[in-house]
Design a protein that fits this description.
319 residues; mainly alpha; Cytochrome C3; 3 domains; three-stranded antiparallel beta sheet; two-stranded antiparallel sheet; 5 strands
Length: 319
């Protein structure tokens, strides 16, 4: 009888030990899976980042519950709903909202826990920066990858003193121009010719403007009237103008930008000193209300320029 009881107790103990190791093993497997999360994405200004192999997930329940002794109601439901993805779906789960004390920022305020703006703690949530792949957009001029990953700058090297932490804030301010950069604002804070190459150095234009800088020989404007031409070669090579003489104060360095606002790109605006009128004022160059056909070649002139003979001879009809 004693032998039988001993055997039963032995099997029971073995079962418990097996269950313990099974649960522990499952927990370890889950933790391992959690710590090898791939494909986490984020956005740093104009650069999308992909964390390929983070040392830890962006948020660890284990650290907060077991390590710091927090209970479920420390965060749920006041700070976060008990539903995975609810914060992202709300549309306000951003660094700005965290800085204002929402979500993680409720505790991560620099007092209760490290602040969400502490540059030396970024990797605590976002993973090892060296494990990030930076995907640059061809649309933008600035490379976060180059400045952060290659040159070792921190977020607070530029934010918020030089640039606000909000995409488009500089453009919305209305003073994000080559003139302001040359005056030491925005990129010009560092790109002054000493700390980094100067913003007015012609040989470095391509570094920021993202192309081989081979300007089109002739630009043809078709809005609000067809057709008006601008000859880059004549202005740059023959007259010796630099890119910064027109860009970005008079014209954005993007074909079609002026035409995108045809209600503003008018002769009246030129007379007021905007666009071509910045130089064509009668003093620096012929006034924009003279020598009309120098720029306005019309439909027939456009056909000749493009080799289209559709309207050939129309100027003689009726004579």
């Amino acid at each position: 009888m004693k032998l039988s009881n001993t055997i039963i107790l032995t099997f029971a103990a073995a079962a418990c030990v097996g269950l313990f190791f099974s649960v522990a093993g499952q927990a370890n497997d889950e933790e391992a899976a959690e710590n090898s999360i791939v494909g986490l994405t984020g956005s740093y200004g104009t650069t999308q980042t992909v964390i390929k192999s983070a040392d830890k997930p962006m948020f660890s329940h284990g650290d907060h519950v077991i390590g710091f002794g927090l209970g479920c109601d420390s965060c749920h439901p006041d700070t976060f709903q008990k539903k995975r993805g609810a914060a992202e779906e709300a549309g306000d789960y951003t660094m700005k909202s965290l800085e204002e004390g929402m979500y993680c920022g409720t505790c991560h305020d620099g007092d209760s826990a490290f602040g969400v703006t502490d540059s030396d703690s970024c990797a605590s949530c976002h993973g090892d920066m060296k494990e990030m792949i930076f995907k640059e957009s061809d649309e933008y001029m600035f490379s976060h990858r180059l400045h952060v990953d290659d040159m070792g700058l921190d977020c607070d090297s530029c934010h918020p003193d030089t640039f606000q932490k909000k995409r488009g804030a500089a453009e919305a301010a209305g003073d994000y121009t080559m003139k302001s950069l040359e005056g030491g604002m925005y990129c010009g804070t560092c790109h002054d010719g000493d700390s980094a190459f100067g913003v007015s150095e012609p040989e470095t234009c391509v570094t920021c403007h993202g192309s081989d800088m081979k300007q089109p020989k002739t630009i043809v404007f078709e809005k609000p009237v067809k057709a008006v031409i601008f000859d880059h070669t004549m202005h740059t090579e023959d007259m010796g103008l630099e890119c910064t003489d027109c860009h970005n104060d008079l014209f954005k360095m993007k074909i079609g930008n002026a035409e995108a606002s045809p209600e503003q790109f008018t002769m009246e605006t030129l007379y007021a000193g905007k666009y071509c009128g910045g130089c064509h004022d009668g003093d620096n160059a012929f006034a924009s209300d003279t020598k009309c056909t120098t720029c306005h070649i019309g439909v027939i002139g456009l056909d000749r320029l493009s080799g289209d003979k559709t309207h050939e001879g129309e100027e003689h009809r009726g004579h």
